[in-house]
Amino acid sequence: MRQLLLVSALIFGAAVLSTPYPVQAEVVANANYVISGESVRLRAEPNTSAQELGRLALGSAVRPLQKTPTRSTVAGKTTHWYQVKTEQGTGWVFGGFVIPAPSYEMGILELLRNKLKAESIPFANAVVLYQLASKAANSAKSRNAKGELELAKLTTVQRSFDSINFAQYRQSPYREWINKHKKISFYNEVSGQYLVSANAFWKLADQYKRDPIGDEIAWRSSQQRLGGECEGFIGCLSIATLRTEGEYLKRFPKGRYVRAALVNLNNNFKYMLDGWKNPEQNTQDVDLKTWSRILKPIANTPESTKARTYLKQLQAMK
Q1: Phi and psi at residue 211, in whole multiples of 5°?
Q2: Does residue 155 sit in helix, strand or coil?
Q3: Are 216 and 253 within one domain?
Q4: Number of folded domains in the chain?
Q5: Measured on CA atoms in the order 78, 64, 32, 52, is the torsion positive or negative?
Q6: CB atoms < 10 A from the CB of 229, how many?
Q7: What are the CA-CA distances from residue 183 to residues 106, 149, 170, 197, 244 (Å)?
Q8: Same domain for 131 and 222?
Q9: Which parts of the chain fold into alpha helices (H)?
C-alpha cells in the first residue's frame, strides 16, 4: 500500500512516559487496525526509546500480532503497545495511535468521523482524508458503510475548499484540485470561495434514501451552503429554506433531525412574519402551500406545533 505522508507530521517528543518493556505479550486474534496518527513511529520494542524501524502514515492498515500485558502512558494516553505487521515489516506501535476495527473500511470510517470533527482542517490533511475515503469506498462491502464513505468524500472536498484562500486559487496544487472537482462545485461570488454543490449531496442522499445512512446524508445535504445572499428578502429566504430544511423534512418526516430542522424553520418563519408588512418585501415567492404539505405528516411536538402556528399566521397575511 502506498504510504501517504502529511505535510505537517505529528512528531512525538522525547519527553514521553513509558513503562518498562514487558517480558510476555498477549496474542491479538482476528483483528484489523488502522493508524490514526500522522507519521507514527514503528519501533523494535514497545517503548519510546527503542529503535525506530520506520514511520506509518495516517490511515495505514496494519495487522496486530500481540499486545503488551501492561499499559504504558505516551503523550497523555494510557494503553497497550501492539506488535503489528506492516508493509515496512514487523514492529511495535503505541495503541493510542491505532483504531481497532472489524475491517479496514470500518477503521477508516472511524478515523474520518474523528478527524472531521475538527473546526478546521489544513488543505494537505483534507486531501489525504479524501484519498482514504475514496480507497475505502471502492472496497467497502457494506452498502451503508459505502454511503457514509461517499458522504465523507464530499465533506472532505468542501473542507479542503474552506482551507484555500482567494490568492491561492490559481496556484498549484490548489488549481489542479479545484479543477479535479469542478463537476460538483462552483465559485460563490458572495463569499469568494468554492462550494460543493448542494445538488451533489442531494444526489447522494437519493441514492441511499432507503438505507440507514440515508437520513444522515439528507441532513448533511440540507446543511450544505447554497451560495448567494438573500440580503433580508423573505421571498428568497422562503425558497432557500425549502431547498434545505424543507427538502430534509419532505424526505424524512420521521427522521433523526426533524427537531433540528423545525427549529431552523421556525426561526425563518418568525423572520418572515416580522418582515411581511414591509413594503420593500416581495411576498409573492413565499410558497406556503408547499410548506403546508411538508408539515402535514410530521408528528405533533412543541416544534411542529409552533411551525404550524407560524404557518397559519403567514397564510392569514397572504
Answers
A1: -100, 155
A2: helix
A3: no
A4: 3
A5: positive
A6: 13
A7: 28, 19, 18, 9, 21
A8: yes
A9: 104-115, 123-139, 143-162, 174-180, 198-207, 213-222, 234-241, 247-251, 258-275, 288-295, 302-317
- Domain with 41, as residue range(s), is 26-101
- pTM of the predicted model, to two decimals? 0.86
Q: Both 179 and 118 in a single domain?
A: yes
- Using alpha carbons only, what angle is made at residue 22 by residues 18 and 24, rounded to the nearest 5 degrees? 150
Query: Which SS3 state, helix, strand or coil, does residue 276 take?
Result: coil
| Whether residue 60 is found in the same domain as residue 151 | no
Phi, psi torsion values for 227, nearest 5 degrees: 90, 165
Confidence grade of residue 229 (pLDDT, cut at 50, 70, 90): confident
Cis peptide before 20 (omega within 30 of 0): no
Q: Rounded to whole angstroms, how far apart are CA atoms 43 and 59?
A: 18
> At 20, is the pLDDT very low, low, confident or very high (cuts 50, 70, 90)?
very low
Residues pairing with 63 in the sheet = 85
Residue for cell digits 470500518?
106
Q: Which residue has the cell 474523528?
A: 114
Residue 50 lies in a domain: yes
Continuous segment of H or E residues that includes residue 84: strand 81-86
